[in-house]
From TrEMBL:
By contrast to classical cadherins, homodimerization in trans is not mediated by cadherin EC1 domain strand-swapping, but instead through a homophilic adhesive interface which joins two elongated EC1-EC2 domains through a region near their Ca2+-binding sites to form a tetrahedral, X-like shape. It is found in: Cell membrane; Cytoplasm. Residues 141-239 form the Cadherin domain. It comes from the Eukaryota. This is Cadherin-13. PROSITE patterns: CADHERIN_1, CADHERIN_2. Gene3D superfamilies: Cadherins.
Length: 250
């Protein structure tokens, strides 16, 4: 009885931890305040990913070449933040789980020629229009994902989107063959994949994203929006020798 009690005392904390663990990034969206103190080559953010199985074979991929993620989850800028992309998606995958997180750089002064620049182009009413900014970072999606579908894979953002306007994506995989592979939630910009993907068939989907008014008229965009398919090993492991005999002590 005493032995059973001790075993329960040892196993119960581990069992409780497993019940509380949710695989994936422990935070899905990060906002980095732009600052001159953030230097190239130094960690600017710590990403916490947990697959609830000790993160065996954990690997990070970043949608922007201006950044990298160290094995310990530290996000490092490879370029001055004033010149780097201001929105990126990070994909993490281990032997047991995978997930994506979004990182946005805020508070940065936009340079001339950026999407936030005021374009002094007069329309028919003589009003000055502001070209709003659609943030559509490239998405990295592993091929051969398991159901259920549709599966959330990313999000398109428009900082100054007018009330009542809608997101729309166009291109191969949407209204062009193969149709219906991707869809976007008009009101939120959330992008979903509806089926398994095969990188050998199509490695990159080059889409366009735009914002429309309630009548369907384009009021912003289109902006390029690439979805990149990540290669997975399609070959099952084969044991070429054997049989293998092992012993486990009670």
């Amino acid at each position: 009885l005493m032995v059973a009690f001790i075993v329960c005392q040892v196993l119960l904390p581990t069992y409780t931890k497993d019940l509380e663990c949710i695989p994936g990034f422990q935070q899905k969206v990060f906002h980095i305040e732009h600052s001159s103190a953030l230097t190239v080559g130094q960690p600017i953010l710590n990403l916490v990913f947990d697959d609830c199985q000790e993160n065996h074979k954990l690997n990070f991929e970043v949608s922007s070449p201006d950044f990298k993620v160290e094995p310990n989850g530290a996000l490092v800028a490879l370029r001055n933040l004033s010149d780097a992309e201001r929105a990126l998606v990070i994909h993490a995958q281990s032997a047991w789980a995978e997930d994506t997180a979004e990182v946005l750089i805020v508070g940065r002064k936009e340079k001339s020629g950026s999407l936030k620049e005021l374009l002094k182009a007069e329309d028919g009413l003589g009003n000055i229009r502001q070209r709003r900014s659609i943030v559509a970072p490239s998405l990295l999606i592993p091929e051969n994902q398991r159901p259920p579908f549709p599966k959330l894979v990313g999000k398109v953002i428009d900082i100054d989107r007018p009330n009542g306007s809608k997101f729309r994506i166009l291109g191969k995989g949407v209204e062009q063959e193969p149709k219906g592979v991707f869809k976007i939630i008009e009101g939120t910009g959330e992008v979903f994949v509806t089926q398994q993907l095969d990188r050998e068939a199509i490695a990159t989907y080059e889409l366009q994203v735009e914002v429309t008014d309630v009548s369907g008229k384009t009021i912003e965009g289109p902006v390029s929006f690439d979805i990149i398919i990540i290669d997975q090993n399609d070959n099952r492991p084969i044991f070429r020798e054997g049989p293998y005999i092992g012993h486990v002590m009670e």
